[in-house]
Design goal:
The chain is mainly α. The chain has 34 helices and 8 strands. Helix 20 packs antiparallel against helix 21. This is Ion transport domain-containing protein.
Amino acid sequence: DPPRVSSFLTHHFSKDLLLAAAFVSDAQYNRNIPFKTSPEAVRLYRLYNHWVMRRATYFFIFLNLSLALFEEPAVYPLPFLATSVLEVLCLLVFLGRLIHFAKVTLHNVFWKDTKNICIVVAILLSLTDLAVYGVLRLYGVRSIRWSRIVRPVFLINFAESRQIRRAFRSIRNTLPEITYVFLLFMFSLLMFSLMALKLFGERNLQTAEGLPYFRNYLEIVFDLYVLVTTANSPDVMMPAFDFSSWYALFFIAFVIVNTYIFMSLFLAVVYNNYKKHLKNEIRKLAYMKRRKMVEAFNLLKEQEGEQFVVKEAQWKQLVKLVAPDTSSSHRELLLRISDDEQKGFVDKKSFVQLADLLNIQVVTLRIRRHPLARWAPALYGSAPSRLLRGAVRHRAFVWTYDAIILINAIFIALDEESPYISYAEWVFLALYIIEILLKVYTYEPREFFGKTQFWNCAVLSSSAMKYNSQQILDIVFILRVLRLIRIVDSIQRFQVIMNTLINIVPTMLTFGGLTLVVYCVFAIIGMELFHGKIQYFPANSNAPHALECGNPALKDSLFARGRYCKNNFNDFASSFIVLMELTVVNQWHDIPCGPAKLYFIAFHIVMVIIIVNIFVSFILEAFFVEYSLEKSEVETAIEQKIQELGMGVQEDELQQEQLLDNMESVEHELEGEGGMKAQSKGLVFKIASKRYRTVDALLQRMFEAEIPLEDEGPSFEEILNLSPSSAVPRSPSSESAA
């Protein structure tokens, strides 16, 4: 319960410790909210950042966005009163969250923050529009819910959405450079269109549908713009190509200049600006984290000889307050790293690394004796038994079964009706059962059938079944074949690609949010502009104008002939599907007609040319970072300390172990009067996989490596005012920072 936790903290910890914990927590999660430092404000600030509050905020944000599914025009219509009550509830939650934020920040800072003003304006506009729409509805007057277009503002501007705001800042910072390239691109497009009009307009050519070919200048501009996306290639070229093969040179030149050169220029400009501004963002985060840790140290420091330090007791209380779920043994391990010589205190140089230490997940591996080693030690420890277990643990055993699985995959792809193939599948099943029996004999059973060993459980359970269906056996084999992914992952070059794919997953959520915002805005605009213009009729319908999708203006159009009637803006879900088709750009030119083409071109420019290129830029940067770090990876301080304590384990030894995250329920086995007992209870420590790090964290680590540990960085104000081209300010002295 967040309020109860906050009350407990206030009564059991000093105000300096609470404030220091807030600074360390901000440094750990890269928050840069300038909050008040009074005890009451710190308590409210901790409550504001509680995970329950943040998830509740996101729930109501997405509830507010999803109301478009139930409002007119609706996928699942609800009464206006029901949607109105839900919207008012969401707006009240947003207002409460904003008031909470105002309570913890300085008033002058709060009202200077553009995102807070945007939220206030969005709430007022939504309430005003809802009231006006409700009154007009009572009098039977149909009006437009124009405020729905501001709903994505809440997703962008709340403090929790700083990653989405960063993406929008990248777009804003990139727009000036993109504009120049776009103007050159449009000049090229208009010039080629003019040449096409002069080359083909007077030759009375016709398309395959019998329509005039390249006789209207605006139609030519649109057709050539579509050709840039290659969606209408080679159809747009064929009438001219049929007339003369030499005319193909015109289209080849157009594609080279506009599709390959200009589109590549767009990516180059976006990537260059993205990288420049991303470096500035990461630099701000790195300096902000360093400054927060210095502030926390200054709150807790005590004189120890000629230097200032944080006492061990204070340090432990701080870590317990910042990371309450961390076990005692984990905290003891972190203390041994921070206080390497066990002097009873942590110096400033080690203290500023605490946020990074807390971000590294430490797991323990419980080493258990095999049951046969307890029940029949003589048999299990005999020379033949040791030889057999050594063979199973050898890499050759793994490679042998990988080869068997590869051969099994080839057999699965062959004709199943052959009796030899059917017999071979039972042979493979017998080999898999032998593998399982050997591994159960070699490894501790609870480890072998642990939560990470899905394939072992699946194959064993399936082998115990009576196979009445060939499909069940095939499914089991296919699941086993998926283990071949491990072969790919064992190759160094493939590991870089796999690591990049894994690391970009968290940030893909950011671009998912960015895409959601753009889709929502264009979907709402599309519904207001095109709702009811197109109707869908079943194939056997006899309704008037069924062949024209309910609109006589579409008679003989590519849209109607292609039976695209379901691609409409009659509700929120259908609008999303149409926008997704436009993002893919395949056959997208068949959807827009007449003036609507401007709407679709605008969406293509925003979504495909700008946002997709920013996403590609991010993937490029992620790959470069991952590749560079793969070549220069070094042991972290935690790994070194684990090895020094004799409680480490090598990667080669981790084939069938059970991982106990965050050292759950094992702290009593490691803690004693002397602190830590190396492997006395069959436990070893290991850093969680380096794969599951965000690209931002990797970039920040690269930049932090360039900052000396004694460098406190600039002040908060200087950090916030850093520009991409500005040099790194000189750091203030320790005395002035204190």
